[in-house]
Structure to design on (263 residues):
């Protein structure tokens, strides 16, 4: 698959922009975010709550390789099916402030689509702290471990 | 970790970014760098000092002159810093794509 994920973290703005092209119709791409049972599979997380509507809430639970559970949650501010949603993102039991996240889904051709995620942080320092390795690595490890567990159980 | 944060602060400043862009093209003396800016030589010299302390510039003494080179390795480390995060999303999205493709095929079958 040659399509790659692009991540831009401008050094003078407190945001991260993630772009990715998919060989999927936009409806299917959106569905991967909308349906809890599908989201659980590719995010490697347990969906405790997912209310896809204005003023709805969401809550995910991820287990790391050591068996520790991490809760992520937030509020959905806007939800336009097949098009976009806006939510807040917060990690429980950490000193990271809430983030604001914009997800925009675009149809490129009938069979391809594009996703842009824009994460806005409280400050540049908070953004850089989040980007600093252990967190991303830890989540990635958890993800890989779950992947292995799932594959072994099939 | 502390050092790394300093590097980000160093490159957050537009004047310092301009200095990096200039020495990336060719090594320059502090005097030649200062000539490119309206700020005082002293201000520019302070910026050069910050960049040197973060290992973004390398000093070379040629005869009686000092020239500054760009330290490419350090900039590469900054790019590498985003890579684990990007890699995490790339893997997730690969998985999303293959999962949805198989769902799509199952439906068509």
């Amino acid at each position: 698959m040659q399509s790659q994920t692009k991540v831009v973290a401008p050094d003078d703005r407190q945001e991260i922009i993630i772009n990715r092209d998919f060989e999927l119709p936009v409806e299917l791409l959106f569905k991967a975010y909308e349906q809890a049972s599908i989201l659980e599979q590719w995010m490697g997380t347990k969906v405790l709550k997912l209310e896809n509507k204005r003023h709805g809430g969401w809550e995910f639970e991820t287990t790391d390789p050591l068996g520790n559970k991490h809760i992520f949650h937030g509020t959905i501010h806007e939800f336009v099916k097949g098009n976009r949603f806006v939510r807040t993102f917060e990690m429980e039991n950490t000193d990271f402030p809430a983030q604001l996240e914009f997800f925009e889904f675009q149809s490129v051709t009938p069979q391809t689509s594009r996703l842009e995620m824009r994460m806005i942080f409280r400050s540049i320092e908070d953004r850089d702290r989040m980007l600093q390795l252990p967190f991303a690595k830890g989540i990635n490890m958890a993800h890989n471990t779950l992947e292995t567990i799932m594959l072994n159980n099939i | 970790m502390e050092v790394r944060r300093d590097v980000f602060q160093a490159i957050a400043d537009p004047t310092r970014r301009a200095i990096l862009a200039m020495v990336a093209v060719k090594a320059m003396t502090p005097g030649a760098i200062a000539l490119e800016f309206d700020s005082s030589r002293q201000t520019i010299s302070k910026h050069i000092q910050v960049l040197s302390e973060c290992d973004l510039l390398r000093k070379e003494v040629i005869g009686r002159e000092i020239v500054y080179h760009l330290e490419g390795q350090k900039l590469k480390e900054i790019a590498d810093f985003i890579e684990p995060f990007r890699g995490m999303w790339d893997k997730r999205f690969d998985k999303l794509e293959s999962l949805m493709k198989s769902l799509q095929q199952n439906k068509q079958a």
